[in-house]
Amino acid sequence: MTYKNIVFDLDDTLYDHQLPFKRSVEKCFPTIDIQQIDNIYKRFRYWSDVAFPKYTKKLISIEELRIFRCQKTMEEFGIDSISRTEALDFQADYEYELDQITMIPEIHQLLLALHENHIPIGILTNGPVDLQSRKLQLIGAYQYFEKKKIIISQTTGYSKPQQEIFDYTAKKLNFLPSESLYIGDTFINDIEGSYNARWHPIWFNHRNRQIAKEKEEMPAYEVFSASELRDLVLGLFDINHDFK
């Protein structure tokens, strides 16, 4: 199969989304078992994904989404009755830590090699425009991605995993799904969503998430580290590069 284009997810794909989360959890909820951070983070992302469609449909505000996901997550790990104020204090600290994010080094190497070889690339991310744009600026994404090839769900009326947002992205970027890779870390939103829209997914499963057995046969590449992702993509595009 010959691929011509690549679209990337943003959160926990281009940068480590868990590191700022871990720092904020340690500060705001010091009694929690930080050894459970992988599971805490997974559940935080789960509850965020549960609430996000309601936010997209304007049934809840972004503030209500943030309170909901914090309260539901902490309840699961033994911290009950988180107040709205505590949830928003956590969000404020989390946003501060998010301002310290940097691009994953191997992803930087991958994007540099793709840029040097003139491979068309784009981004499709769920989230509010202001927040996602800020993250893109912090990690230096604009040196590789044209702004017109960055799709943020809030501007579309759809969100991943809806097929409509993948169709919108393909049309906006002038990419044929049959010739395009989609790279992301979340199975339902990124992998299943892009596959159902006839893209070719690469699951960046660096959190070693498990999926239902009936999903295991879905045609998709799966990698478990940033270096593995870098090497796979460059191999698919027949790009030779020495990163030693």
From TrEMBL:
Ubl conjugation keyword on record: no
This chain belongs to the protein called: Hydrolase (HAD superfamily)
Species whose genome carries this gene: Streptococcus salivarius K12
Q: InterPro entries, per this entry?
A: HAD-like_sf (IPR036412), HAD-SF_hydro_IA (IPR006439), HAD_sf (IPR023214), Pyrimidine_5'-ntase_YjjG (IPR052550)
Q: Does the keyword Calcium apply?
A: no
Quote the PANTHER family the UniProt record gives. PTHR47478, PYRIMIDINE 5'-NUCLEOTIDASE YJJG (PTHR47478:SF1)
Keywords tagged on the record:
Hydrolase
Q: Which Gene3D superfamilies match?
A: HAD superfamily/HAD-like, Haloacid dehalogenase hydrolase-like domain
Query: Record's Pfam families?
Result: Hydrolase
Coiled coil, from the record:
none
| Signal peptide (UniProt feature, chain positions) | none
Recall the GO molecular function terms of this protein's record.
hydrolase activity
